[in-house]
Amino acid sequence: MKQRIERIKKELHSKGYKLTPQREATLTVLLERESDHLSAEEIFLLVKDKAPDIGLATVYRTLELLSELSIVDKINFGDGVSRYDLRKEGVDHFHHHLVCMECGSVEEIIEDLLGDVEKIVEDDWGFDVKDHRLTFHGICKQCQKSKIKVN
User: Fold this and answer.
1) Which region, left, alpha or beta, applies to residue 80 given φ > 0 means left and ψ of -120 to 50 means alpha?
2) Alpha-carbon distance 120 to 117, whole Å?
3) Same domain, yes or no, for 64 and 121?
4) What pLDDT was estimated at residue 87?
5) Which of 57, 69, 133, 134 sits at a 20 to 30 Å CA gap from 116?
């Protein structure tokens, strides 16, 4: 984790920003909970344990900055809540998600499923694709199994 924070620190410095203690505490929470998709409020409550003096507005500003710098991805799964996801290292694109409409679980698909689609968009429309997001909404395996047992 220290190495990842150090790489992010260098990235921030290269873009004219410092890794303040508040930003580091926020990044630490995101790294510790990397598989989760936390809201700003959830992140704030976890950061507060590490930096008791931090305010919610500071966490929001930090998340917005990290999002602008493509260190963190801001996502919404249709529930009206913005969630934050630390961008995976070494990937060109945002990863895809499977959102269960029954239990609300979120699974990640790391593979880039849209390479061919991107090429078509670039070739046919002359559009320079920088990133894309794909979210599938459906019923997860666990909920499907539960329904079979009930019926």
Assistant:
1) left
2) 5
3) no
4) 81
5) 69
- Based on the fold, state whether residues 112 and 72 are members of the same structural domain: no
pLDDT value at position 110? 75
Q: Answer for the pair 1, 31: CB distance below 8 angstroms, yes or no.
A: yes
Integer Cα distance of 143 and 135 in angstroms: 18
pLDDT digits (tens, 9 = 90+) for 114-140: 788 888 899 999 999 877 778 888 999
Q: Are 142 and 103 in contact (CB under 8 A)?
A: yes
Residue 143's φ and ψ, nearest 5 degrees, are -70, -35
pTM comes to 0.70
* 75 and 103 belong to one structural domain: no
Q: Which of the given ranges, 72-76, 110-114, 127-131, 142-146, has the highest pLDDT on average?
A: 142-146
Number of domains in the chain: 2
Cβ proximity of 106 and 98 under 8 Å: yes
Do 20 and 72 share a structural domain?
Answer: yes
pLDDT band at residue 53 under the 50/70/90 scheme: very high
In CATH, what number is assigned to the domain containing residue 78? 1.10.10.10
Give residue 46's domain range: 1-90
